[in-house]
């Protein structure tokens, strides 16, 4: 690292973020639980090895703090719930830490905390501990929130980003790009003729419904920062398999496509906060799609690609014109501070 | 999506591809001037679908890529001045100068802000009357008129803390420079769609007239590009070079007269330094004396040490179409989008970034 400094792009969720995690955090903190590098850490209780716990933490610095479809509080609760759900855990308890900038209107804080309470209630989790710090004006931007959560992994569930196998199918629970575009359009003062609101949602209920329908889920991941393309790349790398996506199968709302055209963005790299990618064996595809489609957060669930033994670690997009090209990871910051 | 989907229709694309395959009997090398075309070609995967007789070569049409290291060093020096807020398009943040990038300057404390338009920069100037807002004017004929209009707006509002560092460049002189150098043999040029919307298709008349080369102006959707390629192949097969406008919904013969008038009112043409091409006469736009108050190069006359090109970087040859990105020894090994050595790996329009990001399989 030497004389290098932290750049905004280190926080974009793309390649620089991954390099930073590998070269600084994992290098210093390495241990078997951390090194798995899934969305949440999972370990068995020494006293009862069949009971496995999951733990995850995430910080939220989004601007603007209120946006169509959500706010920083809802995001902070959903984000950690989703990280737990992505290892197949049932989220139980959350903690919340607040860093407040001097001058933040109390009414704004109340609105955010009320939103957190409502979201936690909806997801069936409790926020059981917290912390508050206030910093000088300018030392933070209105409000930063950290949440951590603990969950329990049911017996027989084995979900990890390393579990994808050739022949598996890749399922997405619905249209992508809404969160990132909602934030961007709010920030840039853009309005579209189509409604555009964040998809921010707790996904633990959907995951529970999926596990009830068919427990043979290999991987789950929520395509947040860096978007779908980055998440699929992570899974390909972690499982050392190739993944081929069908461009025509990926659902992208009209409003997101139009907004992306206008802003010069690729919707495949735009953040989501209520989406998940599931990689499952082919025999589980239909039962899982059926279960997802009967849940409010999975109504538009669809298969978008397949896992292959060709080109391990790489993602290939079969374009609408029938060509194949690499779908790379996000490099640099496409959208700063969106989650 | 209306007005986009009809120009990406896969069935029509395959029909055009069949026409090209049928029409093309001899080997042709076509240069897409514009980096936007390079990216679109890769994104749609067009190169794999074209017959082996048609090869495509990337040109210098990436404004970020052709910005000279010496100019970039000057930009970074100005950004470090304590009173200055530097506003720039996102791509410029990551382009390496002799020492570091604007992104690094920002991490070191320089006030650098990313904007989507020069008008955003004007808003920042209004909101920070105690600071000097410098807008980094990068781009070809497409961008220059809006920047000129922004300067006129600043003048009308009496915004004396607003200025522009103009590194704007003109595309026909650069095309001429490449052809005059004679380093690369071309059969035709895919003309830049957005630029030609401003300057008009007639501006490319010199290609058939002086160089015997056909030119087809293309838009940025798959059908636009295929239509232009068909037009070029057809002109080559017939042996009758001309300028074909395959982007009729945006481009006309004379261009956007209002935009051109505003551009020439504020800017004058002069010699400009291009990365890869060196000094090209009458290829740059600088502010006329009447607008000296808005000229950042006069307001902040910084001195910088002689610039250095990144060691081993062959962006210059990539920009001239002499080598393809994978022929550069740094490509994908040392130089990657995460840690770019040369500008062609940085920009959304850079050829190296396109080759790496969308690499074919």
- Work out the count of structural domains of chain B: 2
Radius of gyration of chain B equals 20 Å
**What is the annotated CATH architecture of the largest domain in chain A?**
Alpha-Beta Complex
Structural class of chain B: alpha/beta
User: What's the level 1 CATH class of the largest domain in chain A?
Assistant: Alpha Beta
> What would the average pLDDT of chain B be, to the nearest integer?
93
CATH topology of the largest domain in chain B: Rossmann fold
Helix content of chain A: 25-40%
Molecular structure report:
The complex is a heterodimer of chains A (339) and B (361). Chain A is an alpha+beta fold and 339 residues long. Chain A folds into 2 domains: 123 residues, 60s Ribosomal Protein L30, Chain: A (2-Layer Sandwich), CATH 3.30.1330; 158 residues, Alpha-Beta Complex (Phosphoribosyl-aminoimidazole Synthetase, Chain A, domain 2), CATH 3.90.650.10. Chain A is 31% helix and 24% strand. Chain A has 9 helices and 14 strands. Chain A has a 7-stranded mixed sheet with strand order 9-11-8-12-10-13-14. The two termini of chain A are 26 Å apart. The C terminus of chain A is likely disordered. With 361 residues, chain B is of the alpha/beta class. Chain B folds into 2 domains: 110 residues, HypD, alpha/beta domain 1 (Rossmann fold), CATH 3.40.50.11750; 145 residues, HypD, alpha/beta domain 2 (Rossmann fold), CATH 3.40.50.11740. Chain B is built from 15 helices and 11 strands. In chain B, strands 2-1-7-8-9 form a 5-stranded parallel sheet. A 4-stranded parallel sheet of chain B has the order 4-3-5-6, sandwiched between helices. Chain B has a two-stranded antiparallel sheet with strand order 10-11. In chain B, a hairpin with a 3-residue loop joins β10 and β11. In chain B, α7 packs across α12. Chain B is globular and about 65 Å long. At the A-B interface, α1, α8 and β14 of A face α1, α2, α3 and α5 of B.
């Amino acid at each position: 690292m030497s004389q290098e400094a932290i750049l905004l792009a280190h926080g974009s969720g793309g390649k620089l973020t991954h390099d930073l995690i590998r070269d600084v955090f994992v290098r210093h903190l390495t241990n078997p639980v951390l090194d798995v590098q899934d969305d949440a850490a999972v370990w068995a209780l020494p006293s009862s090895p069949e009971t496995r716990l999951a733990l995850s933490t995430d910080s939220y610095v989004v601007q603007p703090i209120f946006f169509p479809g959500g706010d920083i509080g809802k995001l902070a609760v959903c984000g950690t719930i989703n990280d737990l759900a992505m290892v197949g855990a049932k989220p139980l308890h959350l903690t919340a830490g607040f860093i407040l900038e001097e001058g933040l209107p109390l009414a704004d804080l109340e609105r955010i905390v009320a939103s957190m309470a409502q979201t936690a209630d909806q997801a069936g989790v409790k926020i059981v501990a917290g912390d508050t710090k206030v910093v000088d004006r300018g030392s933070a931007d209105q409000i930063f929130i950290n949440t951590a959560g603990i969950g329990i992994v049911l017996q027989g569930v084995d979900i990890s980003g390393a579990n994808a196998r050739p022949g598996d199918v890749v399922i997405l629970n619905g249209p992508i790009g809404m969160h990132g575009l909602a934030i961007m359009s709010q920030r840039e003062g853009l309005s579209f003729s189509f409604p555009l609101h964040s998809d921010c949602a707790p996904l633990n209920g959907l995951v529970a419904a999926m596990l009830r329908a068919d427990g043979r889920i290999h991987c789950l991941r929520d395509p947040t920062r860096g978007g779908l393309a980055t998440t699929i790349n992570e899974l390909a790398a972690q499982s050392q398999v190739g993944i081929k996506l069908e461009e025509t199968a990926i659902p992208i709302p009209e409003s997101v496509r139009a907004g992306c055209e206008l802003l010069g963005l690729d919707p495949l790299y735009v953040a989501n906060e209520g989406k998940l990618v599931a990689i499952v064996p082919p025999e589980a595809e239909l039962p899982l799609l059926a279960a997802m489609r009967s849940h409010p957060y999975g109504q538009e669930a669809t298969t978008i690609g397949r896992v292959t033994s060709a080109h391990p670690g790489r993602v290939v997009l079969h374009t609408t014109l029938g060509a194949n090209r690499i779908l790379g990871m996000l490099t640099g910051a496409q959208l700063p501070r969106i989650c | 999506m209306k007005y986009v989907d009809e120009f990406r229709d896969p069935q029509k694309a395959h029909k055009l591809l069949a026409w090209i395959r049928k029409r093309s009997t001899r080997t042709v090398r076509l240069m897409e001037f514009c980096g936007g075309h390079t990216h679109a070609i890769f994104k749609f995967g067009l190169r794999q679908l074209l017959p082996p007789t048609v090869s495509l070569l990337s040109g210098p049409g990436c404004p970020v890529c052709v910005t000279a290291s010496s100019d970039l060093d000057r930009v970074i020096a100005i950004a470090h001045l304590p009173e200055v807020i530097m506003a720039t398009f996102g791509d410029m943040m990551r382009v390496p100068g002799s020492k570091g990038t604007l992104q690094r300057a920002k991490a070191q404390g320089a006030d650098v802000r990313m904007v989507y338009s020069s008008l955003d920069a004007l808003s920042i100037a209004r909101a920070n009357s105690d600071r000097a807002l410098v807008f980094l004017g990068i781009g070809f004929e497409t961008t220059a008129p809006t920047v000129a209009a922004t300067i006129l707006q600043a003048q009308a509002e009496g915004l004396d803390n607003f200025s522009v560092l103009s590194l704007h460049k003109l595309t026909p002189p650069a095309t001429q420079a490449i052809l005059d150098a004679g380093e690369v043999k071309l059969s035709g040029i895919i003309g830049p769609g957005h630029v030609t919307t401003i300057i008009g298709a007639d501006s490319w008349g010199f290609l058939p007239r002086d160089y015997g080369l056909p030119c087809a102006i293309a838009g940025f959707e798959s059908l636009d590009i295929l239509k232009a390629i068909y037009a070029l192949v057809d002109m080559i097969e017939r042996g009758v070079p001309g300028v074909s406008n395959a982007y009729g919904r945006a481009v006309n013969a004379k261009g956007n007269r209002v935009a051109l008038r505003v551009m020439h009112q504020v800017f004058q043409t002069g010699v400009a330094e291009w990365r890869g091409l060196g000094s090209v006469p009458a290829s740059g736009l600088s502010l006329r004396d009447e607008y000296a108050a808005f000229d950042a190069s006069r307001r902040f006359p910084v001195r910088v040490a002689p610039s250095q090109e990144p060691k081993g970087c062959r962006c210059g040859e990539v920009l001239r179409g002499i080598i393809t990105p994978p022929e550069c020894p740094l490509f994908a090994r040392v130089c990657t989008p995460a840690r770019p050595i040369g500008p062609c790996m940085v920009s959304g329009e850079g050829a190296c970034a396109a080759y790496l990001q969308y690499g074919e399989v």
